[in-house]
From TrEMBL:
Pfam families: GFO_IDH_MocA, GFO_IDH_MocA_C3. It comes from the Bacteria. GO terms for molecular function: nucleotide binding. This is Gfo/Idh/MocA family oxidoreductase. Residues 5-121 form the Gfo/Idh/MocA-like oxidoreductase N-terminal domain. InterPro entries: Gfo/Idh/MocA-like_OxRdtase_N, Gfo/Idh/MocA_Oxidoreductase, GFO_IDH_MocA-like_dom, NAD(P)-bd_dom_sf. The lineage of its organism: Bacteria, Bacillati, Bacillota, Bacilli, Bacillales. Residues 135-257 form the GFO/IDH/MocA-like oxidoreductase domain. Transmembrane segments: none annotated.
Length: 344
């Protein structure tokens, strides 16, 4: 195995920069050697900024480079499986941006192909790294909340008409796979499920109430968790200004509430306890501007992929874990279309 793992990026949009900067921050163990995008100008601009040797306008040519070890998938969501499967068949490990994909069968195919080819498949869900979320999860596991009763996620973003006009794939079923939930809210959907446990059913209303797009800009969801608790997910890109993303976890013996800016409530019936002091929230306050996030989460997942390859272990979030949020969102869309409660 080489002293440095050699990364390539497919897709040169906004999120690709976070991968590029994170790879360079791990310069002792990683280097970025190739970028591909259908727009050669975009690929070249990003490549020039980060001194990347190989620039392509198609990922098939990129994947022929034998020296590439890992491919970061930064394409529109509806292309994730296509590129991931091709990368796996070329013997490359895969680090995929959220969501894993937008179609259940495609997720199954990419997971199975990566297993078949014995390459790692990881996905980026940096909200799981929020210190407040980690403290909350530990408190739940320690039984401090008692029996879980409610788990709510409020994912109220603002995205302008110009945002949706910035790429032909945005706001489409075919390539975006959904709107406020599948694109922006998927991090929060993943996190509430990570904290509260698997979901048994959903009933939802979703619609484009403001923007001229195919998919939803507003969603309200009632959920039942398999542990018996209830919950609510509210997601939007339609309100101004975007609100701090917030999570509420309630049990019969306690309550934890936290958001982008830290812990709001930390209260337990059986004992008094000061809320943990949170110094770093990963800079995830991107409710109004998608570029206003820190690269720290991406640095973690680049480093995690390097460790997974060198130590032959599962990535922090593998394909099976990453698909849970998408399966949940797909059930939400089915409920909205049918007007029925959908069982998972």
């Amino acid at each position: 195995m080489p002293s440095k793992l050699r990364f390539a990026i497919v897709g040169a949009g906004v999120i690709a920069r976070f991968h590029a900067e994170s790879i360079l921050q791990k310069h002792a163990d990683a280097e970025l050697i190739a970028i591909a995008d259908p727009s050669i100008e975009k690929a070249r601009t990003l490549g020039d900024e980060f001194n990347v040797r190989h620039i392509f306008d198609d990922y098939e040519t990129l994947l022929k480079l034998p020296e590439i070890d890992v491919v970061c998938i930064c394409t529109p969501s509806g292309m994730h499986s296509e590129v991931s499967i091709a990368a796996a068949q070329a013997g490359k490990h895969v680090l995929c941006e959220k969501p894993l994909e937008i179609n259940a069968d495609k997720m199954t195919a990419m997971i199975e192909e990566c297993r078949k080819q014995r390459v790692k498949l990881g996905c980026v869900f940096q909200r799981r790294l929020m210190p407040a979320a980690l403290h909350a999860r530990q408190a739940i596991q320690d039984g401090k909340l008692g029996k879980l009763v409610m788990g709510n996620a409020y994912l109220k973003y603002y995205r302008s008409p110009e945002y949706y006009g910035s790429g032909g794939w945005r706001g489409t079923w075919n390539l975006d796979g959904g709107g406020a939930l599948m694109n922006q809210g998927v991090h929060g959907v993943d996190l509430i499920q990570f904290l509260m446990g698997d979901v048994s059913s959903v009933f939802a209303y979703t619609a484009p109430l403001v923007r001229s797009i195919e998919v939803e800009d507003t969603a309200v969801v009632a959920i039942k968790f398999k542990n018996g608790a209830f919950g609510v997910i509210q997601g939007s890109t339609s309100i101004y200004p975007g609100q701090e993303t917030r999570f509420e976890l309630h049990g019969d013996k306690g309550t934890i509430e936290f958001g982008d800016n830290g812990i709001k409530q930390w209260s337990f019936m059986d004992h008094e306890e000061e809320a943990p002091v949170i110094h770093d929230t990963l800079g995830l306050g991107s409710s109004s501007n998608p570029q206003q996030i820190s690269i720290e989460g991406h640095c973690f997942y680049i480093d995690d992929m390097i460790r997974a390859i060198r130590e032959d272990k599962e990535p922090h979030i593998n394909g099976e874990e990453a698909r849970k949020s998408v399966d949940l969102i797909l059930a939400i869309y089915e409920s909205s279309r049918s007007g029925k409660e959908i069982m998972l």
